Amino acid sequence: MTGAAPEALASGSPRASRFAWALPWVRPASTAPPTAPELPRVALSRTKRLVDAVFAVFALLLLSPLLLIVAAAVVLDGGWPPLFAQERIGLAGQRFRMWKFRTMVNGAEDMREGLVHLNEAPFPAFKVTNDPRVTRLGRLLRRSSLDELPQFWNVMRGEMSLVGPRPALPEEVRHYDSFALRRLAARPGITGIWQIENRNRSNGHFQEWVQKDVAYLEGWSLWLDVVLFAKTLAAIARMTGR
Asked: What is the pLDDT along the chain (242 residues), one digit of tens a residue?
């Protein structure tokens, strides 16, 4: 996706309509909806997009043997399919399919309602530490973050970035207020500040999550991305994923 100038998101512009689908969900119909946020520098940087694309292409090529091995292991452990696609919300409210190696049993999405009472993540996110839907191999893939490797495909396509806010589910965005909607003002990332600092815990406050994401968007630099990605690799090496 090509970058749009910040002024293109001004009220009444064609670009502003990209947020229109989300705004009615976060305010009663009788009140004025919040203004769609402007795109920050991080969303407009061609250099960041170039780094993302080049890195993702090389990662997919270099890791292709590992990707095939993991895919085969998932099929042998839990049957077909090896990949799991889930609709997420990306830059400026665009919907896309995020890919991961399947770590849960088939039909896991249909079992989610029965586990809502076990949710440990800050609402409206959802996370269960000892999720009974996760397979034995799936736990290993999550601890090593190998389940995230297919997301380099999303990065190459321009739907995600290496670093940024984690992509939200549509049902989560329905609960966003105007401040939380600012998370949609950049491409979502494979990793980010919240994922690094809260890798070993699921609880916390959603407002804190949003504040960290917004702080990243406002203070973004390529050097910050390098630091966060390096910290992510160090965390992966410690096998601390959940």
From this structure: 444 333 333 334 443 344 443 443 333 333 343 444 567 889 889 999 999 999 999 999 999 999 999 999 999 988 889 999 999 999 989 999 999 999 888 777 766 766 766 666 656 666 666 777 888 899 899 889 999 999 999 999 999 999 999 999 998 898 888 899 999 999 999 999 887 876 655 556 778 888 999 999 999 999 999 999 999 998 888 876 65
| 44 Cα distance to chain centroid | 18
**Domain edges within the chain:** 39-237
Q: Which two tokens stand for residue 206?
A: 């959603």
Residues with Cβ within 8 Å of 201's Cβ and at least 6 positions away in sequence, in order, are: none
- Full 3-state SS string of the chain: CCCCCHHHHCCCCHHHHHHCCCHHHHCCCCCCCCCCCCCCHHHHCHHHHHHHHHHHHHHHHHCHHHHHHHHHHHHHHHCCCCEEEEEEECHHHCEEEEEEECCECCCHHHHHHHHHHHCCCCCCCCCCCCCCCECHHHHHHHHHCHHHCCHHHHHHCCCCEEECCCCECHHHHCCCCCCHHHHHHCCCEEECHHHHHCCCCCCCCHHHHHHHHHHHHHCCCHHHHHHHHHHHHHHHHCCCCC
Per-residue buried b or exposed e for 34-64, using 16+ beta carbons within 10 Å of the residue's own CB: bebbbbbebbbbeebbebbeeebeebbeeee
Q: How far apart are CA 23 and CA 19, in angstroms?
A: 6
